[in-house]
Amino acid sequence: METGSVLLLYVSSTNSWSLICNDNWDSSKAKAVCAQIGYYSEPVYNSVPVSNLGAITNPLYSNIQVLGDGSIQVNPLPWGSCPSGQVVSLSCAACGTVHKQQRIIGGSDVSIQDYPWQVSIQYMGQHICGGSILNSRWILTAAHCFDKGQTQVDRWHVQYGVTTLTYLFAAKVDKIFRNANYYTNQKEDDIALMKLASDIRISANVQPVCLPGYDNDLPPNSPLLVTGWGYTVEGGTLASQLQKVSIVLISESVCNQAYPGQIKSTMVCAGNIQGGYDTCQGDSGGPLVSMGQNSAWDQIGVVNWGIGCGRPNKVGVYANVVKYLDWIYGVMKVS
């Protein structure tokens, strides 16, 4: 859940989702749960009073048993009880934090320490797209970054931890996964994952971004940020320094006025209706982030498409990350 990172697990016997009672919870259970969605670093966990969650109709409480093969079993507690009144809050990675206080169109120079999850995805020594660090082995980006059939992974590299765009010492790529429903030059399901050949070292300049809670639902005009090294003017050239721009979430109805009938539930729109603030060529695949309820940066969008760069009434369109959480976690777990 977005609120408090509260953990919910599916109980097949009751066909429902269950809160996990904090009684007898420990690090081995936290690691086993995180492994189910492809995270193998040290998880961060805590407890949250059930009273903090507001009114929940007929809540189901369970505990976790780790089986011999490392899988987990969810055991519903009798009579819907949780003796401690505390449920598990879990983050599978320390994410979304920066170590500094706080040219994309209309943007400004920033340091990588402000947005340490930002990466440059490069093909044969050229910047092609942006991307974001999900954990020490996985990068989230857009599927259309690979539209030209460049499937040889040894020609792709990921540059991370740098403010100034460079092509030296970039990380090697092991596999590329485009969403199976994506087809070249289409606008839907434009999301991809890259698995690196080796773990990257987390530091002040290299941090994962948080994925949002499954129930993340921001209202229109919520403040957002997008970063990248893309063109600073339409038809221009790549920025040498990492750029960021502050924009807002645009409602689906308003966005459909700009792009009639093209905006689906798997997309989100963001920008400035008056123009002047936007993403552009070279920003594709990069992260659209918001400050989450847990005071950490959540990635709610992946830069996808739009008409022009910073034009009035033509805002940017992004893959809606919440709609792809099952796909992201599924790929990371089995690959």
UniProtKB/TrEMBL annotation:
Residues 104-333 form the Peptidase S1 domain. Gene3D superfamilies: SRCR-like domain, Trypsin-like serine proteases. Residues 1-93 form the SRCR domain. It comes from the Eukaryota. One of its GO terms (biological process) is proteolysis. GO terms for cellular component: membrane. Keywords: Disulfide bond, Glycoprotein, Hydrolase, Protease, Serine protease. Pfam families: SRCR_2 (PF15494), Trypsin (PF00089). GO terms for molecular function: serine-type endopeptidase activity. PROSITE patterns: SRCR_2, TRYPSIN_DOM, TRYPSIN_HIS, TRYPSIN_SER. This is Uncharacterized protein. It comes from Hymenochirus boettgeri (Congo dwarf clawed frog).
